[in-house]
Amino acid sequence: MRTQRTARAVLAILLTLTTLASAIPAQAGESHPATNLPEPIAFQRANPADKVRAALTGKGYKVLKVGTNNDGNLAGVYMDMASSQLDEAARRQVVEGWYALSQAYTDPAIETYLSGLVYQERYLLCFFVARADLSAWIGGQMSDQTFAGKYIFKVMDLKTEQWVTDKDFIHKSFGVPAGKTVGPLPKPAAGGTNLVLEDDFSDPHSGWGSHEDDTASAGYVDGEYFCRETAENYIYHAQYPDLELDDFTYQVECRQVEGDPENEYGLVFRCSGEDYYKFGVTGDGYYDLLLRKDGQWTKMVDWAKSTAVERGDQVNVLKVACTGETISLYVNDEHVQTVRDDSLSKGRIGLFVGGWENMPTEARFDNVKVWSGSGGPQPTPQAGPAPTPQPTKPPPALNQTLCCGTSAGGTKIWSVRYPAGWQVVYIPDNPRDFQGVLISDPQGTIRIGLIPSTFTPPGAALDANNVDDFLDAYRAQRERENLGFKELLRQPVAGVPEGRVWAGTWGSGSSQMWATYLTILYPVQPWSPGLPRGYLIMLGVEATGPEWGRAVATYEAMLKTVQTRTVKSGSDAWTGVEAGGTAVKPMMIRWCPECCGWVSVTADRENWACPVCGTPTELWETGCNR
Length: 626
Known about the structure:
The chain has nine helices and 34 strands. The chain is mainly beta and 626 residues long. Residues 1-46, 375-392 and 568-626 have low confidence and may be disordered.
């Protein structure tokens, strides 16, 4: 438990915050949060403050102070840091602080939100964000990567009442330079905090009623509720009559038991007379959101395909969170869309089924939960077992040589040794002219990716001139290829602005796959239409958890065998396209579950240099928190 001295120390530094916040840098042409606080934050008990306190306390956070500055243009909250380091839990706490402020302090004069965490009773971690940027990010109009460059992170020493400017200390403690962000943050789990309805349909008199006519029927069956529609181009919905809400979270387990997989089922909400919103999914993996008002349908979210939607007759947990005009949609605890619409502000909830052809269609519903107010339940983490940090068995012998790969522009050739019997996929698919390879073990549990230097495919989705646009497209490609794929990490590489350490996972149990790549993308300069927009370095490992250590060991051993040679002068090569000189930069990415997470390091820490070209080790490493 924190001491009262901590709370007093927070109060003591408020005046200092107001005078020092103006030192926070802002780059020309970028939107940044307003952090110039000419007056101290006066934490007065007011209704918005009570709302923030209730929302965050309901999530288990210890709130120290909440309120606005005297000018009324900044709202802030200070909490005890819920974690011992700036990990995923702490990052989520920051966002939840912002979100609670945004839902309570809605006065147009508020320009900036400040979410602060007290760390080790000594430091105050201050996260400033512009209200407009937070709204755009939560509403889906701003990508996670763009938003990562918008907010500002500063550290205050409560003992000296000064901003911490020691970059080495900040980098060692939090992994980022002073005045910079801490990278992408998790979106808030919007929703309510007070459970007002819970129904597993075991009681046929719980209030939903029953219905039957020539085209539709509904009622209780075998501990579930069913809705059935027989007419084409119609939907039937059943409403719960005893609950009318404005801000709420509504969650139901749903499944289709009969009908064409293109027919839909799901939730209706804010029902008032014949007006309502309809959030539905289909058995072939799509979701949508429609508004019905005054007899007319309006598409709020047109049909969108998502890997979050379970196919066929599998159960889908649908959730909608409404706060004011903000409507957030979730499928199986994954946020899929947020929209803003003020057409309907309150109403009842319900269930529906509908279709267009191959009728009838029927859906079953179970375990309804409704929370009132803003705040809300957290999505259930879906991560499987972390990769083991040590090899489970020794790496195989590297007794086969692959050659001769080329670099983008053709000025370098390279080779590498790999285990005999492993499958090689060439990039492009031509063993006589390739710039990268994917090398897999016979069981399909390990894959080594080596793309030392290649062009992005001209005109394709992966054709980009910056690394974040490329990784956005690459993530979308992996989501299409691997059901349930999740991006885990996208972290800058110190000293390499064009580089990212990237990681993702898919699957479950012992067969869950993990992937991580060092990705560097340089823009092609000069560029003209028809040419690729960038040249790419992408080196990394994919493996199941039990095989992760062996995969990393194999990858390290392979990188030490890489050889490069320069093509003789006079050969056909494009000037200026070589990515940083040598075509191959020996790199690996290592899993560190006992420490700070993903860390990128060189092939060998022992001052290794290539025996062929003499290229020394380049230690591009993100700092460890321990």
